Amino acid sequence: MPDASFWIQCLLFLPLFLVINLVAAVPGRTDLKEIAKVGMRHFYAGTATLIVVSIVLYFLMGWLIDIEPLW
Amino acid sequence: MTFSEVILNLFPVFIAAGVAYFLWKSNARQRIAVVLAWAFPGAGHWWLGHQNRAKFFAFCLVPTFLAGMALSGFLNISPIERHPIWALAQAPGGLMTLVAWLATMSLKVTSANDYYLIGCLYSGSACLLNLIAMCDVWDLAETPKTDTGTTTDSAEETP
């Protein structure tokens, strides 16, 4: 299992990811409420995607490592 | 000459070409707004009269930049001697980067810090996100011209 530092680093990623999504939602939009709404939506969708892809890759790599070598 | 050496040697050419393109395509209002936005996040928007947008950029980017500095023990802003590669990311921070560098340049590394690179990432990301603010202020400061040579705003005012 990953150590505590790994989880802290993962948690530290989230605020930065939120800021990136909020700022990236600004160009082309005038209403700040809409910007916040779109930024939060992208943050939720991006975080969910990252978690799902990370879990899939984690188990995929574990399965690949466990395969008996052919030679 | 390797590929990376070619890129490094061409980098000043790309910068000069970008500045020349900026000067060629922009009007005076855009130049002032973009320089202000580069100097401090939101300053260009404030100058154009978009106070809420200016506050939004300032409240998003400045705390992120400072959080990065705090995470890395105030040792991450250093354009030349510590991390030249991070200087590329920190350059769009403008005065924010310059002031932080001058204020922390006398500090020395005394102990290992697990979050040093995360701090570099926070500050570097805040500075790179300032590029979005600069592009946004460029768009806001642009006054589109019509075929007759008059601006859109003045054309709307005429009956």
State the helix count of chain B: 8
The end-to-end span of chain B amounts to 64 Å
| Coarse shape of chain A | elongated
Domain module count of chain B = 1
Question: How would you describe the overall organization of this protein?
Answer:
- The complex is a heterodimer of chains A (71) and B (159).
- Chain A is elongated.
- Chain A contains two helices and no strands.
- Helix content of chain A is 79%, strand content 0%.
- The two termini of chain A are 29 Å apart.
- By secondary structure, chain A is mostly helical.
- Chain B has eight helices and no strands.
- Chain B has 159 residues and is an all-alpha fold.
- Chain B has one domain.
- The C terminus of chain B is likely disordered.
- Chain B is flat, with a radius of gyration of 19 Å.
- The termini of chain B are far apart.
- In chain B, helix 2 packs antiparallel against helix 7 and helix 4 packs antiparallel against helix 7.
- The interface between A and B is medium-sized, with 14 and 22 residues.
Detail the topology: elements first, then pairings.
The complex is a heterodimer of chains A (71) and B (159).
Chain A: H1 4-24, H2 32-66
Helix pairs in contact in A: 1-2
Chain B: H1 3-25, H2 28-39, H3 43-48, H4 51-71, H5 84-90, H6 95-104, H7 116-141, H8 152-157
Helix pairs in contact in B: 2-7, 4-7, 5-7
Looking at this protein, list some descriptive labels:
heterodimer; A: 71 residues; mainly alpha; 79% helix; elongated; B: 159 residues; 8 helices; 0% strand
